[in-house]
């Protein structure tokens, strides 16, 4: 018996390149749309067991915003794996230190926690300003 349903294979996946400018945008709203691009949610050939997403270039990570004064309230935690090694840093301090880490963490936590997450995160490129070295891939602008 032959089935009519077409199932996507790895050789059928075609990836596009997108440029997202996040200047003066809200962090959570941007991260959900970037995660959706990395997963490939807008594509008709998406399947749950394959990574069908696209490449995403994020520009101007220094210009990201939060709502209602959360710049002083939002705290990022990590542990050094030593006793008493819990480290914390506020959003505004992390923005000065390394703003690309803010975008990467927000997008990473919005992706599904499964074996495909590392491959999706490898296709995310975040830059502090509006210059990027990916012009050879001819990325298209993605409007938020």
Give the C-alpha Rg: 18 Å
DSSP strand content: 15-25%
Secondary-structure element series = EHEEEHHHEE
Reported by name, the CATH topology of one domain is Ribosomal Protein L13p, Chain: A
List keywords for this structure.
144 residues; Ribosomal Protein L13p, Chain: A; 4-stranded parallel beta sheet
Draw up the topology in text.
Blueprint: E1 17-21, H1 27-39, E2 55-59, E3 75-79, E4 86-90, H2 91-97, H3 99-110, H4 117-122, E5 124-126, E6 140-141
Helix pairs in contact: 1-3, 2-3
Short description:
This protein is α/β, with parallel strands linked by helices and 144 residues long. It is 26% helix and 17% strand.
Would you give an account of this structure?
26% of the residues lie in helices and 17% in strands. The protein is of the alpha/beta class and 144 residues long. The chain has a domain at 15-66 and 99-141: Alpha-Beta Complex (Ribosomal Protein L13p, Chain: A). Helix 2 crosses helix 3 (99-110). The longest helix has 13 residues, at 27-39. It is globular.
């Amino acid at each position: 018996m032959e089935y009519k349903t077409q199932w996507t294979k790895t050789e059928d996946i075609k990836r596009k390149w997108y440029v997202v400018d996040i200047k003066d945008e809200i962090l959570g709203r941007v991260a959900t749309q970037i995660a959706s691009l990395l997963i490939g949610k807008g594509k008709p050939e998406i399947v749950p067991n394959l990574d069908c997403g696209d490449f995403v270039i994020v520009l101007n990570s220094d210009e990201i915003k939060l709502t209602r004064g959360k710049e002083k309230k939002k705290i990022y935690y990590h542990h050094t794996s030593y006793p008493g090694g819990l480290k914390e840093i506020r959003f505004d301090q992390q923005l000065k230190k390394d703003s690309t880490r803010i975008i990467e963490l927000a997008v990473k936590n919005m992706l599904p926690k499964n074996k495909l997450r590392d491959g999706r995160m490898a296709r995310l490129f975040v830059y502090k300003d509006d210059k990027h070295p990916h012009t050879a891939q001819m990325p298209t602008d993605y409007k938020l």
